[in-house]
Design goal:
It is a single chain. By secondary structure, this protein is mostly beta strands. It has 3 helices and 13 strands. Strands 1, 2, 3, 4, 5, 6, 7, 8, 9, 10, 11, 12 and 13 form a 13-stranded antiparallel sheet that branches. It is globular, with a radius of gyration of 22 Å.
């Protein structure tokens, strides 16, 4: 069970002195953007305010251009604008949408693997897409918490190559199994097809529930104020496909094919903002690192299927165990399927199955 909790805080932008309190009515919350039915374009403006050359001043001076920007970071539960991967979205039919995204050629955490984009940046893109659509198209307030129950991802490495420019992606998303409460989505499943330059890069399927603050508080109880475990020593970075120990999320144990989850709440990407549990992307990274350590050589994930069953708590050790299954007949010999299970307090936290190749 992977929960996403994010509190939106927006700084005041006013410069004029505020009116006396008695004369100021209570401000209504800003409405969410209207559902998009076509790609966003600024409309040309002429007349008042036109500057040199006939173009109007301010933002209208660029109205004749198609400009790219990221979506608001609050819609994807990120505190850092630099970690927002999505750039726009539009509705294309009933419960069907197109989302656009961009992957940088280099990322501080999702670093390229032997010239390929890190496949886990695709998982993060899918996570952000579900949050974006839930908030903007299905009326889920920004203060709700999200619990992801499962995620599956299949990638084509032929279209994962890092190019001479950032990778521009188009993601076709279909939402289904939607349950609603009080006119807003309470749970949904969404399937996605990621395309790059018209080619299918990946396909994904995920499901999540959206939980109001009061319900989340009842579910979590005093777990919302736990103190994380002391930081443990990392496994050698080169054994898990990393170059820096700060990006390692595993600690070695005396037992074969078993690791303890290493939780560094200071990590600027994996812990982008304060949380009361270990985020799902940390668990996916742990599964990927455990796979690499188990196989003993660099890996490039091709498929990933994960089911989350319980919250991963910050104050109790988590242990991951791995085993492999024989290569399926007809598949290349360098394809390996690894199963990763994680337990905490003798309860399952998640199970992943990852098929990899050697990059």
């Amino acid at each position: 069970m992977s929960a996403h909790t994010f509190q939106a805080h927006r700084p005041a932008l006013t410069t004029a002195a505020p009116a006396p309190a008695a004369a100021t009515p209570a401000a209504a919350p800003a409405p969410l953007p209207a559902p998009r039915t076509a790609p966003t374009r600024a409309s040309a403006s002429a007349g008042a305010g036109a500057g040199a050359g006939g173009l109007s001043a301010g933002r209208d001076a660029y109205a004749h251009l198609s400009l790219t920007r990221t979506v608001p970071k609050e819609f994807v539960h990120r505190a850092s604008v630099a970690e927002v991967l999505l750039t726009d979205w539009q509705r294309t039919g009933e419960d069907r949408f197109t989302v656009s995204a961009q992957w940088p050629r280099g990322h501080s955490f999702f670093t390229p693997i032997a010239g390929y984009h890190d496949p886990l940046i695709a998982a993060e893109t899918i996570r952000q897409s579900g949050l974006l659509l839930a908030h903007t198209e299905y009326g889920v307030p920004l203060d709700h918490s999200f619990v992801m129950h499962d995620l599956s991802l299949t990638l084509d490495p032929a279209h994962l190559r890092v190019g001479a420019a950032p990778a521009a992606l188009t993601i076709d998303v279909t939402c289904s199994d939607i349950t609603r409460r009080r006119g807003r989505a309470a749970s949904l499943r969404y399937t996605s097809t990621l395309r790059r330059d018209g080619h299918v890069l990946a396909r994904a399927d995920a499901s999540c529930t959206c939980t109001p603050p009061a319900v989340y508080q009842r579910l979590r109880g005093n777990r919302t104020h736990t103190t994380p475990l002391p930081l443990t020593a990392p496994t050698a970075p080169q054994t898990v496909g990393r170059t820096s120990p700060t990006d390692v999320v595993l600690t070695p144990t005396p037992h074969p094919h078993t690791w303890q989850l290493r939780t560094d709440t200071r990590h600027p990407v994996l812990f982008d903002h304060p949380v009361d549990h270990i985020p799902g992307m940390v668990l996916l990274e742990a599964a990927r690192q455990a796979t690499t350590a188990h196989l003993g050589h660099p890996t490039l994930p091709l498929t990933l299927t994960t089911t989350f069953t319980n919250y991963a708590e910050l104050d109790t050790p988590c242990h991951l165990q791995t085993h492999t299954t024989p290569t399926t007949p007809g598949h290349p010999a360098d394809h390996h399927t690894t199963h990763i299970t994680c337990h905490q307090n003798n309860h399952p936290v998640f199970h992943s199955t990852i098929t990899t190749t050697t990059p």
